[in-house]
Design brief:
about 80 residues; mainly alpha; 2 helices
Length: about 80
């Protein structure tokens, strides 16, 4: 059981890193102060929304597998 969870954990960790690398930069830094934040009114693109959902799902899965691994290792 622990081996299966560990394998799932490693796959999810690699997927989280991959999805985060695929995402573009979100903020414009201080450039948004002087009126460069026109993108604020257009809303997120569908690709960004999909990547955000996938990232959130993978992050929750990563947290759950981490918790299961900790509880099985130190719960004895």
């Amino acid at each position: 059981m622990v081996t299966v969870v560990l394998i799932i954990h490693l796959v999810v960790a690699a997927a989280v890193v991959g999805i985060i690398v695929l995402q573009g930069p979100k903020g414009e830094g201080l450039g948004a102060i002087g009126g460069g934040g026109a993108r604020l009114f257009h809303g997120p693109k569908p690709r960004e929304t999909m990547l955000l959902r996938v990232t959130s799902t993978l992050a929750v899965l990563f947290g759950i597998t981490s918790l299961v691994l900790v509880l099985t290792r130190f719960g004895r």
